[in-house]
Amino acid sequence: MVSGCGSSIPGNSVAVVAGNPITQQALAHWGYVAAVGESEQSPGSPVIVPDPPTYTKCIASLKKVAPATISVAELKTACVSQFSQTLEYLIRADWIQGQAEARDAGRDQGLLRGAHRELLHS
Questions:
Q1: pLDDT digit string (tens) for 28-84?
Q2: If you write DSSP's letter for every residue of 17-73 in order, what string do you get?
Q3: Which H/E stretch holds residue 105?
């Protein structure tokens, strides 16, 4: 769990950024969106969603499509990496939103869209 700006983390959240909690539901939703995006890059690939903390379902899904030479530890590393990337995206997105509000840029939706576009491509 991650906390920013000295905030405590509510029970249904995984992080707090500038006083705004990132809920488990939001993380699950964006984890699914990321998994769909990855599967679309390789047509025919299954949608594989990380399921922390054990990643059991993720590892089982990857075993079905990975070469037999790939170890379970390597599969788990891939699951953890996807989870971490999703959490990082949400933290950055909340931070950008907070910065925009602090600078009163909330009225300029074009600025926010540009910042989110940059974040997606970083």
A1: 898 899 889 888 888 888 889 999 889 999 999 999 999 999 999 999 999 999 999
A2: ETTEEEEHHHHHHHHHHHHHHHHHHSTT-------TTT-HHHHHHHHHHS-TTS-HH
A3: none
Does residue 31 contact residue 48 with C-beta atoms inside 8 Å? Answer: no
- What tokens were used for 6? 């000295």
Q: Measured between alpha carbons, how far is 78 from 48 in angstroms, rounded to an integer?
A: 10
SS3 122: coil
- Compute the distance between CA of residue 122 and CA of residue 42 in angstroms, rounded to an integer: 20
- Model-level pTM? 0.71
Q: From residue 75, give the alpha-carbon distance in Å to each of 24, 39, 91.
A: 23, 16, 25
